[in-house]
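Quick start: load a record and inspect it. Here is Eukaryotic translation initiation factor 2 subunit alpha:
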Amino acid sequence: MRYYRPKFPEPDELVMVQVKQIQEMGAYVKLLEYDNIEGMILLSELSRRRIRSIQKLIRVGRNEVVVVMRVDKEKGYIDLSKRRVSAEDVIKCEERYNKSKTVSSIVRHVSEKTDMDMETINEMIAWPLFEKYGHAFDAFKLSISEPDTVFGDLNIPENVMTHLTSNIARRLTPQPVKVRADIEATCFSYSGIDAIRNALKLGESISTESVPIKIKLVAPPLYVVVSNATDKQGAIELLETAIERIGESLKKDGGELVVKMKPKAVSETDDLELAALMERVARENKEVSGDEDSDAD
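Running the structure step on this input writes:
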C-alpha cells in the first residue's frame, strides 16, 4: 500500500527503502512508502568514499534513507542515491516515515473494521489531510481535541468515523511523562524550618492544571520536585520557574537552595531508585528513633 496520493516520488525527494538484493552494478531496493515499487542505487551512489566492501555500506533487508535522482514513470525506473543524503536528511525522513507508517496502520485498522479498502479510506480521509495539514499524522493528533476542525469538511460515513476516532484516541493520545528535579533547601536563620516550608509551598503554588507540581522530602536537606504532564518541555520549564521562586524565597530569609539535578524526564528505573532511597532513609530514621527510646529506658 502506498502512503501518499502520488504513485511515484519526485526527484530530490527523500524516501525510505528496504534493500532487496546487491549486485555488481549496485543495490536493488523497494520503496516502502510507495507500494514497494522497485528502485536502484548505483554503486557510484552508495558512498562518497572509495568502496572497499559493499556489505559494510548496505545490507539486504536493512532500511535505508535515500534521495531520488531520476524517475521514469513510463518504464517504472527509479534511480536513487545514498551518498547524497546528510545526517539531517536521515532524521527528517525517518520522522516522516514513522508518522506515515502510523497513519497507514490506523487506516488499515479502519479498513478491517469497515470492510472498506485502504485506498478508498486514504482518498476519503488521509490524503486530503496530507494536503491540508502537511501530514495526516499531525491532523490526526489535532483531531483528538478538535475533531470538527479536522474532519468537518470531509464526507466520512458514521461507522468509519467511529472506528477512526476511537483508534486515533487509543494510538495518539499523549501519555503523561514524569519530570523531576532534586534540590537541597537549607536555612539556618531564626525563621529556619518555616522559611523552608513557605518556600516549598510557593514552589508548589506555581502548579497549573496541566502541569501539577508536588514537592516531597527525601531526607533533610534533600527534596524532589515532581510533575506528571503530557507536555514534557512545558513541565521542565515550569519546574525551573518553581525552583527559581523557591531559591528567591529562601535567599530573602537567609537560606540557600542548591539544585542537585536539573528538571528532566525520568524513567521507571529512576523512580525505583528514588523510592529505594526514601525507604532506606525512613528505615534508618526509625532505627535511630528506636535507639533513642532504648537510651531513654
